[in-house]
Amino acid sequence: MNNLLHRLEIPVSTNDNNEILRKPLPSNLKIKALFAVIIAIGVVVWGINSRSKDQAGLVHLAQEQATPMVKVIQPSLTTEASDLVLPGTLQAYYSASVYARVNGYLKNWSVDIGTPVKAGQVLAVIETPELDQQLKQSEANLETALANERLTEITSNRWKNLLASDSVSRQEADEKNGDNEAKKALVMAARADVDRLRALASFKKITAPFDGLITSRKTDIGALINAGHDAGHELFTVADTRKLRLYVNVPQNYAHKITAGMKADLDVPSFPGSSFVATLSANSGAVNEDSGTILMELAVDNKEGDLMPGGYGNVHFKLPVDRSLVHIPASALVFRKEGLSIATLTADNHVAFRKIQVSHDQGAVVEIANGLSATDRLIDNPPDSLENGDMVRIGGGNK
Q1: Residue numbers of the domain that contains 58
Q2: Domains in the chain: how many in total?
Q3: How confident is the model at residue 320 (pLDDT cuts 50, 70, 90)?
Q4: Angle (CA) 327 329 331, round 5°
């Protein structure tokens, strides 16, 4: 500092001997110069420090910008019974297609679709000219057999009396008795044929198999009738609609939650805002290989006749609460080569991918069966570039 002040001395005028005289600066000027030097040094130091801080800030900002920012969410526990909604199909509790048992022509019908009928009620009558002739011929054959049987019986008894007086041989008496037994057998055969044809003739009247409703009629007066299922279509369809069967295909992962006697609500398009109670009565006990579902049957009371067989509706099952299940938004799911996964965060905000199993897909929300707990932190909508162990920043007010 002394050297600097010495250098700040200002020369004055010379004397006659050309000697250069130096005169020291006043003390106040020295102080001002000192302050100026200190300020200059401070400015330089401040500039260096400021530039260093800016450089460090830029480095930190670059590192921060290189670290992806994510939104963190937490799973929610299942606290309420979930509502499983599945489509169902209604069918009559009893339904029978009525076919003809005899050939002929339809003489008349007495009921049409929508008509309630009682068991044994006549639905239609068939004209059977061929069957009538066969029955007459069979009855005539029976009369002939009976006449022959009576004649052989008389002959057999007569030969038995002659045998007692040794007028005929035993061989001849046995032959007459055997002929009588053969004629009795022919009578039995003829009578059986008559009974068969009479039984067929009784099918000329088409009757209802049980109490129900006529749901279809596929014949008319004068129509040619062919007997049997393979020979033609059914004449009528009778359905008992006082009670209906409701069939539902339940996914395999819900089958253990739906048990016999369980109640369900049914809503149908024809009665908006109303519901009907259905009770689970049976299930197929096997998984359909094509659909991965189990067919289940529910009984629906239909005494009022509001529901119709063949209809459809939505079946609402109230499943019991499973507190081991958690819910997460579907946006948190990641499809990786290891399978369906989620991106969780460690305590120091590093990414850890975890494989999970979805129990139920509800659209925007999925139900996780295992691999996740309510205390875990997971990344919502994770970027595709994330890998295991990556450091992330938490944004959106999450911690």
Answers
A1: 2-64
A2: 4
A3: confident
A4: 150
